Amino acid sequence: MSPDHNDFSVPPWPRSAASVERAMRDNAWQLGQRIEQLERERADLRRILRGLGEGVLAVDRAGIVVHANPAAIAMLGLDADSCLGSHMYVAVPHPEACDALELVLRRDEHAPRLERELTIEGEDGQPLQLAVAVRSLRPAGASDDAEPEGAIAVVTDVTELRRLEAARRDFFTNVSHELKTPITVIRGALETIADDPDMPREVLEKFVGGANRHALRLSALVTDLLALARLQHDPDALRSEPVDVRAIAADVIDTAGIASRTAEVALEIEADADVEPILGDEEAIRQALSNLIDNAIAHSDAGSVVRVRLRVSGAFLEVEVLDVGAGISGEHLERVFERFYRVDSDRARSRGGTGIGLSIVKHVAQAHGGSVSVESAPGEGSRFTLRLPRSARG
Ligand code: ADP
To answer: Which of 123, 167, 207, 351 is most deeply buried (CB count within 10 A of its CB)?
Structure first.
């Protein structure tokens, strides 16, 4: 190798002592610069690793932990003071993760990388789902079958992702199930009518009536699903305009008049004098109130009263819908706002309930920066409270 190509080489002879000394000083200065640069790069790298949301754990060829960033320490439950320098099987309390590192170090799987998913207990005692991707560490440019210098595990918390995947699966199963029932009934009715052209009129009317009821249910379901999709996926598309909630409540009560008369349930509305219009989406708020009031009527006994009260409470306008009907028992109470959750499925379905009404109320409240809650006792009735911010949407 020619000495001219080496940054730190001694220059060729002949040279004076002074020029040799100058060259050595230059080399020392360059070396100092390189060391400073490397240290800067190391500090940058450490900063990046410290700030990463993913956990990074590195071990050397013997399985000794040589690096663990704060995310890895938190997610894997490592001891920050003692993990560095310890063997991974001692430092990492999850043998599956260590086995993956070991396999990569030993090249047992003939692959320089492995993926594993662990379910561990999180700090709050809740299960935590961790995806662990293990790669071998090799000198730059080395081939895949070169002896690894160590291995690195990148740990990602996929708990929320898996929860969303499961919720999506459940949602599709529920939707398919909910759509299938009315479609089956309508098809059955149509086939029976087609097979029997001489069917007596009253039997025919029974089949047509049944098909019609299920077509209405199908239509209600699709309308509710579209409303829910709009609220969930595009809450920003909601309008922010002055909404007179008192007038809307009165309007919803008017519209609910027929249902309440049929059920022999009286409807009353009272509003405090300081209730003023708020900023929000009129259609969404109308739908939320309508769902709450329709439910209250549907679960009330004949001769009882459903009360709607509007009052100001700090920064919120509270709309309370109170009935003295069937009530909801404790084990169902916290689940009634879930999509498709029904306390008494058969009764709810037979009265045309989609099981999505309260979920829509919850999303309307949240999209406005508010909330909805319920207090109830079986046999005593229920009090649903919708809280909407009085000023700008949150
Ligand atoms: P549905 O379309 O079945 O009414 P919702 O989401 O509106 O669906 O309500 C979910 C469940 O909560 C209902 O099936 C019903 O069992 C219960 N529920 C809702 N409102 C009331 C109420 N005011 N009184 C008693 N139970 C209620």
So the answer is: 207
User: What stretch of H or E contains 136?
Assistant: strand 127-137
Nearest CA to ligand 1 atom 21: 295
User: Are 346 and 357 contacting, i.e. CB atoms less than 8 angstroms apart?
Assistant: no
Digit-coded pLDDT (tens) for 34-53 = 989 999 998 888 888 888 88
Contact 362, 386 (CB under 8 A): no
Q: Does the beta carbon of 295 lie inside 6 Å of ligand 1?
A: yes
Cβ 150 under 6 angstroms from ligand 1: no
Closest CA to 373 of 362, 381, 360: 362
What is the 8-class DSSP label of residue 53? Answer: S
The answer to whether the CB of 381 is under 6 A from ligand 1 is no
* Each residue's pLDDT tens digit, 173-225: 888 988 998 999 999 999 999 999 899 999 999 999 999 999 998 998 998 89
Q: In what order do the strands lie in the sheet with 127-137?
A: 65-68, 55-60, 150-157, 127-137, 113-121
Q: Give the residue, out of 336, 359, 363, 386, with the most ligand 1 atoms within 8 A of its beta carbon, to mutate for a pocket test.
A: 336
Q: Strand 278-280 and strand 305-313: pairing? A: unpaired
Q: Cβ distance 267 to 305 under 8 Å?
A: yes
**Surface-to-core class of residue 67, CB atoms within 10 Å of its CB (0-12 exposed, 13-18 middle, 19+ buried):** middle
Q: Is 227 in the pocket of ligand 1 (CB under 6 A)?
A: no
HEC string for 234-284: CHHHCCCEEECHHHHHHHHHHHCHHHHHHCCCEEEEEECCCCCCEEECHHH
Q: Where do the domains of the chain lie, and which CATH numbers do they carry?
A: 48-138+148-157 (3.30.450.20), 159-233 (1.10.287.130), 239-394 (3.30.565.10)
Q: Where are the beta strands (DSSP E) in 296-337?
A: 305-313, 316-323
Please name the residue that has the structure tokens 């230059």. Answer: 26
302 Cα: distance to centroid of ligand 1 (angstroms): 18
pTM flag (> 0.70)? no
- Residue 280 CB less than 6 A away from ligand 1: no
| Residue 320 CA, ligand 1 centroid: distance in Å | 16
